[in-house]
Amino acid sequence: MKMKNYLRLILISLFIFSGSTLLFAQKMYKVQYESQADLKVYVVSYESQCDLKVFMVNYESQANKDGLWYNVSYESQADFKLYFVDYESQADLKIYFVDYESQAGWYNKSKEYLLKFKNQ
Asked: Which of 4, 41, 49, 84 is deepest in the core (most CB within 10 A)?
């Protein structure tokens, strides 16, 4: 009986841990065509123009808050597929790339709903 409870505890812990990782990861993939995208993105020149300040991280495990993006190699690995548009008026989300991880986050919180995770 004790072993069964112990195994149950381990399974629940693994589920919670893996679920929490999925909630925070922001794995992005750049697509070639607008029709393939979940979001149309425009890169602005000034921080004051953006909705989200983005910092590209080197490891998936570092993408643990909004604005910390990890670029994946394959579309199937991505949480979001992005298409970069040429004009600001075409964009769902305007981003500004920052130099430091600590600067990443929402500048315009009214757009937060765009990066809520889809049911997988």
From this structure: 41
Residue at token pair 């922001």: 26
> CA 63 to CA 5: how far, in whole Å?
33
Residue 30 CA: distances (Å) to CA of 1, 34, 42, 75, 110? 50, 10, 12, 8, 24
Question: Which tens digits make up the pLDDT trace of 78-120?
Answer: 999 999 999 999 999 999 999 999 999 999 999 999 987 554 3
Q: How far is CA 10 from CA 15, 16, 21, 70, 96, in A?
A: 9, 10, 17, 29, 41
Distance of alpha carbon 26 from alpha carbon 61, whole angstroms: 10
* Tokens 């500048």, located at residue: 107
Q: What is the pTM of this model?
A: 0.76
**3-state helix/strand/coil string of 16-82:** HHHHHHHHHCCEEEECCCHHHCCEEEEECCCHHHCCEEEEECCCHHHCCCCCEEEECCCHHHCCEEE
